[in-house]
Every structure is written in structure tokens, then in C-alpha cells.
């Protein structure tokens, strides 16, 4: 009996999001028949154009107490069986992945089908910024006229309208505080620009092997249909993986990559105008895939840097310490009103054209983002039509969008790009946030008594509760917002990375990147 083995996957009804590898053995007495079967099956597999053939893999050796290396050793044989070529790079320092990807020529990048992060959300954020830093060209986020320093800075108003990311500087250590700037880094991979060699050797058809420069016309731009990013979860929270696959399982993520699953993911473009109230106006662009938060969210990450020896438990400890301090921060926030936001009663400000917030809009029925999500599909379809043809009520285009402002003392200001599910918050920060609908979920937590804030935070720990229903919580679905603080008392948290800024503008970039994922199963 002549035999051959087919490697496949299986799933259970109880946990449909978990993929388990399995083997099927076929046999026949006739060798020629076996070879015919084998060749036909291989031809079918090779005709599947979505399957990757060449991948670059970054492995974080210290994330999650060393889980990165162990998880890669577990899933690497699966890539070998699928005959996928992998260029594996074990990160040696902070910013290693960023520098490697930012220095790749477009010819080298086009030789890859994607990049995989074996680590946490911080490593994925570094890879994301390394790829998009010079390859995504778009205008800066919109801002209301006369808002904050824009009142007296006409030059930068013009730069906002015409500026492109290709001219924006990379954050540097002089005005940005980075976690994990030591050999004991966990999930955090800050974006430090260094002169150290990347150690990367990729066959290139470019005989000069010169890296891309700012003056070079980029052959690779984003968004596109072919390049994808993947994550094999090995971090402390892995919110991006849980929100996009429904499981925090390295094998499941590896199989999704191998089979070439693809889905679009919104990205938040964060532009820092000033790092402190006395600093010069200098636009610096960063990208976040899951969350951007100021106040409580930023202080937890900053405080946790003092307790790295505790491992992942440092986040619980730091969160408790920051909570007990119960600090609030004076700030002013303006966001674009969407058609889903009910009209507010107050008249618009004559100077800024923004409306003050005086009433809360009613909550609509929650629609959770799942595999083949119709909300994300309709949002993508509506983006390809003219305004007159758009029939999707969840993604209408406003001809004259209004700016709504909110100011006062806030415990935190945050924007969720995705639901941000994790083991401590099973529904995430915003249960009905979608992966590619082109919206941010702005969360403004106003100053309130400590017991009420504790009640609000505990609502995240159980499924089915509504932590956003409190009177001191504002939840706005928007495409862009601007934040200004007259102090530099706190920092921003971008996907677990510290970002020092007192004036920022943020906008949602719909479907900017593709992931090796298909969304959580029902």
C-alpha cells in the first residue's frame, strides 16, 4: 500500500475560533494512482493565490516571560510543512524591527508576502510604524479652525491641509519617553532611530542595494491588496489578536497565516504637534492599531516601567497605584460629528465652528464585529461609491461635518480603533467597535468620585455589562478628533507604547493594512 499524508485543520462547535492541525492519510495499491492524487492536490493548493510563500518573521525573545521564542519553536514546523519560506529575525534591541523595515527598499519589500510579529501588541506597533513611516502618504488629520494654537499659526494650518507623512520626522529620544529602552524589555518595542546595522540579508534584484530615501518614488504604497501583517500572540495582553481572531492561541494564528486568510484593519494616525506646552510646533506622526489613550491609560504604562521585574503582573500593580492617586487632567477635545450622533441643542461657536456638548445621544443596538461582518463590508463598499450612491446608514458622508467640543477635567481620554478585547476585559473597551468601518470610538472619562470610577472600571471585567453608560462617561463615534492640554502632566499610550504629547490630532484610516485573520467566529 502506497500512502501520503495531507495536513489540514479541524474545529469544534464549542470553540469555533480555535484551529487545530490534523492529518489525513490516503493510500492506494497502485503507485501511479497515488502520484496522480498527490499531483492534483498540489496543483489545487498552488492555485490558491492568497497563500503566502515568503514571510519575514520578527521574534521578541523576552516578551511574556520568554514566550516569544517558545511559541515560534512550536509553530515553525507548520510553516515548514506548508513550504513557506521564512526569514526569522530575533530582535536584539529596542527599535530593531522598526529600523529593519524602514530601511528595506521597495524591491525587497515586494519580494515578501507579509511580515509576522511573534510577540505582543508593542512589537506589532513597531512593525506597523516601520512599514508605514515612509510609505503611507496622506494629509494630516483635520482640525477645527481657531482651535488651540491653530488660531495664531496660519503656516501650520496650511501644512495640515497640504502636508504629507513622507516629510514627517521619526520620533526621537529627545522629546519622546520610550519604555523598554533596556535589555529587559517585555512587550514594548519603542521606535528608536539608531545607526546600528540591521543584520538583514534579503536577496534583492536591485544591484545597487540602496535603501529607499525620502526623495525616491515609492513603488510600494498603502493601502494595497497583497501585503499582510500577522501576529503570533506572545505578549501580556494580545488585544489585537483577541479582537481579530477571537483566540489567544499561537497555533490558530499560525494556521490563519499559512492558509492566507485576509481582512482589512483600520489604523489610527496620530499626529503630535507639540510634545509640551513650551515646545515648538513640530509635527510627528505615529500609528496605532488598537488604542490611543491619555491620562489613566498613559500613567499605567509609565508607572509599569518601574516594575518590569514583576513581569505581566506589573500592569495590575501599576493600575492599582494610578487608580488610588485618582488624578484628573485639564484638557480640551474637539471631534467630528458623524451622522450617527444626534444633533446637539447648543449653537455653534462663532470662532471655531464647533458645537459645545450639552446632551447625550441615545445608545443604538450593539452589533458585534464577527467573521464576514456586514458593517465592515458595507463601509468598504460605500467608500467606492459617490455620495449620491451611498445607501449605508452606518457610513454616510457629511457634506458639512460639524466639530463638537468638550472641555474640563478628565480622568482619561482614549480612542479605541478596535474592541480591544483581552482576558481581563472579555468584551473589550468598546464591545461594538468594528475592525474596518473607518471610525474611532472616543471615550472621555470626566472627573468623578473614586467609588464611581471603580464601579466603572469593574464593569469591564465581565461580559454583557455596559461600562459606558455612566453619566461621567462620554462615548462618541467619530472619524477624527483633536486634543489640547495646557500642561504636560501625563503621556499618551499608543498600543502600549509611551508617546509624550500635549497637542495631538487623530484620524481613522479605514482599511489601511491587511491582516492574516478572518475575524472572530460567532
From TrEMBL:
GO terms for cellular component: membrane. One of its GO terms (biological process) is regulation of programmed cell death. Its EC number is 2.7.1.138. One of its GO terms (molecular function) is ATP binding. Signal peptide: none annotated. Residues 171-215 are annotated as: Disordered. Residues 171-184, 192-208 have a biased composition (Polar residues). It catalyses: an N-acylsphing-4-enine + ATP = an N-acylsphing-4-enine 1-phosphate + ADP + H(+). Its cofactor is Ca(2+). Keywords: ATP-binding, Calcium, Kinase, Nucleotide-binding, Transferase. Residues 50-274 form the DAGKc domain. The keyword Ubl conjugation does not apply. It comes from Urochloa decumbens. It comes from the Eukaryota. This is Ceramide kinase.
Amino acid at each position: 500500500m502506497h500512502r501520503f499524508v495531507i495536513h489540514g485543520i479541524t474545529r469544534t462547535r464549542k470553540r469555533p475560533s480555535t484551529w487545530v492541525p490534523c492529518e489525513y492519510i490516503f493510500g492506494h495499491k497502485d503507485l501511479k494512482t497515488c502520484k496522480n492524487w498527490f499531483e492534483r492536490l498540489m496543483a489545487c493548493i498552488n492555485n490558491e493565490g492568497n497563500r503566502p510563500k515568503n514571510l519575514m518573521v520578527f521574534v521578541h525573545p523576552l516578551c511574556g516571560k520568554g514566550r516569544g521564542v517558545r511559541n515560534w519553536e512550536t509553530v515553525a514546523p507548520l510553516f515548514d510543512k506548508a513550504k513557506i519560506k521564512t526569514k526569522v529575525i530575533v530582535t536584539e534591541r529596542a527599535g530593531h524591527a522598526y529600523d529593519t523595515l524602514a530601511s528595506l527598499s521597495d524591491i525587497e519589500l515586494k519580494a515578501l508576502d507579509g511580515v509576522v510579529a511573534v510577540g505582543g501588541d508593542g512589537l506589532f506597533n513597531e512593525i506597523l510604524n516601520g512599514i508605514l513611516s515612509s510609505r503611507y502618504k496622506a494629509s494630516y488629520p483635520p482640525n477645527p479652525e481657531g482651535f488651540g494654537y491653530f488660531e495664531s499659526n496660519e503656516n501650520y494650518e496650511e501644512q495640515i491641509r497640504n502636508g504629507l507623512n513622507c516629510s514627517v520626522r521619526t520620533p526621537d529620544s529627545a522629546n519622546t519617553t520610550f519604555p523598554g529602552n533596556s535589555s529587559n524589555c517585555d512587550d514594548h518595542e519603542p521606535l528608536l532611530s539608531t545607526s546600528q546595522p540591521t543584520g538583514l540579508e534579503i536577496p534583492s534584484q536591485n544591484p545597487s542595494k540602496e535603501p529607499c530615501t525620502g526623495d525616491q518614488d515609492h513603488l510600494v504604497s498603502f493601502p494595497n491588496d497583497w501585503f499582510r501583517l500577522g501576529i503570533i500572540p506572545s505578549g501580556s495582553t494580545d488585544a489585537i489578536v483577541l479582537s481579530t481572531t477571537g483566540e489567544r492561541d499561537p497555533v490558530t494564528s499560525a494556521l490563519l497565516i499559512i492558509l492566507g486568510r485576509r481582512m482589512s484593519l483600520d489604523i489610527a494616525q496620530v499626529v503630535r504637534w507639540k510634545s509640551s506646552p513650551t515646545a515648538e510646533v513640530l509635527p510627528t506622526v505615529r500609528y496605532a492599531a488598537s488604542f490611543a489613550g491619555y491620562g489613566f491609560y498613559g500613567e499605567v504604562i509609565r508607572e509599569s516601567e518601574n516594575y518590569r521585574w514583576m513581569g505581566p503582573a506589573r500592569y495590575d500593580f501599576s493600575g492599582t497605584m494610578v487608580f488610588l492617586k485618582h488624578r484628573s487632567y485639564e484638557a480640551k477635545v474637539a471631534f467630528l460629528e458623524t451622522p450617527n450622533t444626534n444633533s446637539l441643542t447648543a449653537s455653534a461657536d462663532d470662532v471655531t465652528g464647533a458645537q459645545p456638548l450639552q446632551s447625550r445621544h441615545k445608545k443604538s443596538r450593539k452589533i458585534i464585529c464577527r467573521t464576514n461582518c456586514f458593517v465592515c463590508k458595507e463601509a468598504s463598499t460605500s467608500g467606492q461609491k459617490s455620495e449620491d450612491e451611498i445607501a449605508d446608514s452606518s457610513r454616510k458622508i457629511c457634506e458639512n461635518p460639524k466639530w463638537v467640543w468638550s472641555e474640563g477635567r478628565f480622568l482619561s481620554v482614549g480612542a479605541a480603533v478596535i474592541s480591544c478585547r483581552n482576558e481581563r476585559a472579555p468584551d473589550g473597551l468598546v464591545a461594538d467597535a468594528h475592525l474596518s468601518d473607518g471610525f474611532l470610538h472616543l471615550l472621555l472619562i470626566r472627573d468623578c468620585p473614586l467609588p464611581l470610577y471603580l464601579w466603572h472600571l469593574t464593569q469591564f471585567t465581565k461580559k454583557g455589562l455596559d461600562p459606558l453608560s455612566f453619566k461621567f462617561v462620554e462615548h462618541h463615534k467619530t472619524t477624527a478628533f483633536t486634543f489640547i492640554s495646557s500642561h504636560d502632566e501625563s503621556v499618551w499610550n499608543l498600543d502600549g507604547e509611551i508617546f509624550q504629547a500635549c497637542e495631538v490630532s487623530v484620524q481613522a484610516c479605514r482599511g489601511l493594512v491587511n491582516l492574516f485573520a478572518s475575524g472572530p467566529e460567532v
